[in-house]
Amino acid sequence: MRKKLVSLLLTSVVCLNVLAGCGSKPAPEEKKTPEASSEIPEENTADTQENEGTEINTIDTNMTAELNIWSSGEELQRFVEGFNKIYPNITVNITVIPNKEFLSKLTPVLSGGQDVPDIFTGESDYVKYLVNAGVWDDLTQEPYHATEKLNDIWDYVKNVGTDDSGAVRALSWQTTPGSVIYRRDLAEKVLGVSEPEEVSAYLSDYNKMLETAAAFKENDITMFGSWEDVMLMALSDRQQAWVVDGKLVIDAKMETFLDIVKEIYEKKYDLNVSQWDPEWIAGVESDNVFCYVLPTWGYSFMVKANAVNTMGKWGLCEGPNPYINGGTWLGIYKDSPNKEAAWAFMEYVTLNSEALQEYASIYGEYVGCKSADDALAQDQGEENLAGQNLYEFYNQVMAKNPNVTITEYDGQINTAYKNAAKAYATGKITKEEAITQFKEDVATAYPDLTIE
Amino acid sequence: MIKKGIKNFVIYGLLLLLVAITLVPFYLITVNATHSSFDIVTQLNLLPGKYLIENYRKLQEYVNIWSGFFNSLLIAVVFMIVSGYLGALVAFGFEKYQFKGKRILYMIVLASMMIPSQVSIIGFYRLGLKIGLVNKLTTFMFPFFAPGVSSVSTIFFLRGMISQGISTSLLEAARMEGCSEFRIFNRIVLPCIMPGIATMCIFNFVNSWNNYIGPLIMITDTKKYTMPILISLVKGIYLTNYGAMYLAVGISILVVVIIYLFCSKYIIDGLTMGAEK
After folding, report:
1. Fold classification of A58-175+327-377 (topology level)
2. Which of A72, A179, A195, A371 is the most buried (most CB within 10 A)?
3. Choosing among A1, A8, A9, A14, which should be mutated to test the B contact, i.e. which has the most B CBs within 10 A?
4. Beta-carbon separation of A302 and B240 below 8 A
5. A187-216 pLDDT, tens per residue?
6. ipTM over 0.85
7. Which chain A residues contact residue B229 at CB under 8 A?
């Protein structure tokens, strides 16, 4: 009898584990119904209700709440101190999650519906997916009514955060227009000029840019850090996004760009490395890389952060076309119990011009709020840019309305394109094969897309 | 005699080469942890630099590496003990008792080895959610040592050991003396297979120490983050700060190195046990 009991115990222990394994059956996706937002538990809104002000404008700054925020970067933490000066009773807990795993962590939590953070961020690679999935609240509706305030936001920030039905679901504290970040001293040496407008003239279209690269090559200077940088710019050169109405579109400009990549590779106009490789970063401090084609984040995180000996030798100029790339958005979870407090924080981070000016003056980031950027453009320029004012420069780029072609598929499609372009440039496959390979890769990643 | 000398020379030469190859990564991590990012990306560093304190300061600025260190240690130690003891218990049950459905159950246990943990992690998360174990302060470790209750590789390995090393007559003798079944396991079986358990414990410890995706999905509180997540955060935050990254990696492998240094005897003993028969 005893023997049996022990064996029963042992096997049940095993079964427990097996059962735990069985739990992995995919549960039915939570319905993304719009009415879900109307059935929010109201208990936490109690203290704001006492002055009968359902209008968020008359919100009292004494409200008490605890906000949970998931972010893929540490930037949001920088706003907390200033925010708590206005709202001392709102506790803000920010959890930073590595960007690469952000979606894999968020997905199970969203489908479980428990412990979902009140606010979470979305990187440009997948922000459209989150916007269209309807997991964030529409900010133009109750209780936010943000429509008027959105006029002070750059269109790019607003448009990317808007879903197909026109609901604004995500906003950002930053905007990320692009530039060619070049070395003034090397420009002077090879081209004989160093001011942004003059250098821009040498980069007015892609062919001219490659001719300029040849001139630099003669002086043993590599034009670009990596051709992948140039791709960020080329993506804004096309008229159509990767996916239009569920169909993969390869813009003629992207086909031409394959040849540009090949020329850059064959004539060694770049360092033959990928972005964020050590050599790519080290190029900032060497005297044989002329420029990096990168948006605002590339300048502040990469070039400025690493320039020590080359401090003050940099300049920002425009390339063949204005472009914009990347960014992090944030939105309020549709079933969050702390919507008022969440909106107070989000408003502070994305729409409060004074707060953004202060943030930008410390961290040097170009922000999403127009009036803040205008004010900052009046200040004196940056030391690293030899006195050039980056806000003034980026304002000019934004005024040209760079093409925005961001879709929810971009992350994987861009990777597939890069792989195909690389294989073609190195001569492993022909151009036709590269395009076929690209289409196949996209079809594998997104079987639902129509591919011709 | 000379022939033998040459032979030894070649053998020792090759072995020394292997040692060098094995040590190079550890050496590079240690050395690079003392250099600035810029030096790391631009040159090959063979001698220690002066940036250790600077790197440490940068690392501590954003992530609290020591809290991650102790979280990881706590989880790994509990996981190691639970998986070692219960693994042996299950293996003993499968080997020495006859009961209905034993074969099928054992098959299921083995089959579960083939499901990668990445596949079942979402289900595991939902299970934890249903029984209220996710993200609770007191029970936050539970999800990590629960799988240790039946760590398949441990069961498989120890079952083989029990079948070879412990004869049924030994158990019968104990039973004759009036020893209870549970006592038999604790007092007779466990000491006999200790080297094997020690081996598996070390492997399980290292597995748990390196577990990245599990804690990442299950923990949402930064204070409870484990070592691998913090290292990944350092990567994400600094993007280019290789010095701080190397230092974080260096701290994390420290424990594993120490474990192997002191326990390598058990690992070798455990793996070769029964080989001489």
Report:
1. D-Maltodextrin-Binding Protein; domain 2 (3.40.190)
2. A179
3. A14
4. yes
5. 999 999 989 999 999 999 999 999 999 999
6. no
7. 98
